[in-house]
Write a structure and sequence with these properties.
- This protein is of the alpha/beta class and 159 residues long.
- The chain has one domain: Glycogen Phosphorylase B (Rossmann fold, 3-Layer(aba) Sandwich), CATH 3.40.50.2000.
Length: 159
């Protein structure tokens, strides 16, 4: 199952859903797709769409998913990484009236550069990222507090 996360931004992200729909119709995506779409107005016969869901259900969908396709929000990316999920991120863009600024571009680029996620700056690159997903092995992500605890444990062991 693929879980798509668009977050709670008050602007739509129709481009991403249209591309996922196209990839389903073209046979590139054969898994079932469940999408949390927030304020995005969209209809699809190919995906199960939900606007807003509770945190428990949200986390259950992440746990059940084989792949997360998400907007470039830090919260969504980290939620998936902390549950050891493969992530493909696509940033919302100002030029398409999907956000107030383009900070998601930098977020996606940084997480991708560190090897934690796959990402594409354009929905047109989503097909390529999906095709490479089976070969992609993400670098394990450690939250800072986990890193701190590991470092502290090493110090205590040396004492």
């Amino acid at each position: 199952m693929i879980f798509v996360i668009l977050g709670t931004q008050d602007k739509g992200f129709v481009r991403l859903l249209e591309e996922i729909d196209r990839l389903i119709n073209d046979g590139v995506i054969s898994d079932s797709v469940i999408a949390q779409i927030g304020h995005t107005k969209y209809y699809s016969e190919n995906m199960k769409l939900m606007d807003f869901i509770g945190i428990d259900q949200f986390n259950d969908y992440i746990k059940s998913a084989d792949l997360i396709i998400t907007h470039g929000g830090v919260g969504a990316i980290l939620n998936a990484l902390l549950q050891h999920k493969k992530v493909i991120a696509v940033p919302r863009r100002v030029e398409f009236n999907e956000h107030e600024n383009d900070h998601q571009i930098e977020i996606v680029q940084e997480f991708k550069n560190y090897g934690y996620i796959q990402g594409t700056l354009s929905v047109n690159g989503l097909k390529e990222e999906i095709m490479k997903n089976n070969e992609f092995t993400p670098k394990p992500y450690k939250a800072n507090n986990q890193f701190f605890c590991d470092q502290l444990a090493e110090i205590i062991e040396r004492i």
